[in-house]
Design brief:
The protein has 231 residues and is of the alpha+beta class. The chain contains nine helices and ten strands. The strands form two sheets. Strands 5, 6, 7, 8, 9 and 10 form a six-stranded antiparallel sheet that branches.
Length: 231
Amino acid sequence: ASALAMDKVLCKAILRSHGFDLAPEIVVYRARFEVDPGGVLDEAERLGYPMFVKPANLGSSVGISKAHDRTELRAALELACGYDRKVLVEGFIDGREIEVAVLGNDDPEASLPGEVVPAKEFYDYEAKYQDVGSVTEVPANLTAEQTATVRDLALRAFAAVDGAGMARGDFFLRRDTGTFVLNEINTIPGFTPISMYPTMWQATGLSYGGLIDRLVALALDRHRDTARNRV
């Protein structure tokens, strides 16, 4: 699951095949961008501004930029290509950032959802790890129906990548339609004191220590199951 989820391009292809609503995207390879930057920019601009540019194989928002015009787009592509040979350019989704923690192996559970309100244009590395003004609300202010829907979507995303142990489903709740768009499934979510994963489980009734105990038990259970394989 982690090998798949780390590659944002391949993971989106799998999630889309499972029927998830995802942001539109194009894939840019460094080799092409270096020989035909104008063509790449023209193709990417069809998504419309603003847009996000991400290295395909990194986490914690490293190398990610939000581009508002052609100049920023080119700079964002140059930055991302410094981190990976494959880059994802995604169209902007105007929505609230909703997250759900998932815990389990073959019979996983979903936490109450939380909401991230970034202090900046998006939830970047500093906002995630240094608490520089972003606000998190746990549980998120959603209707009972919205809460049930996003928890179910998180479990479906976990199953789609054959998740085990833990994961965090990240969604956008569209402001125009009120529907959920899956941003990504994160199989190694943050675990700092201000991270959403343990915070959402605490709000759901599972303490930090209890969460660690569960994760250890799930790892041992998966190890026992894997040991049954012939090779």
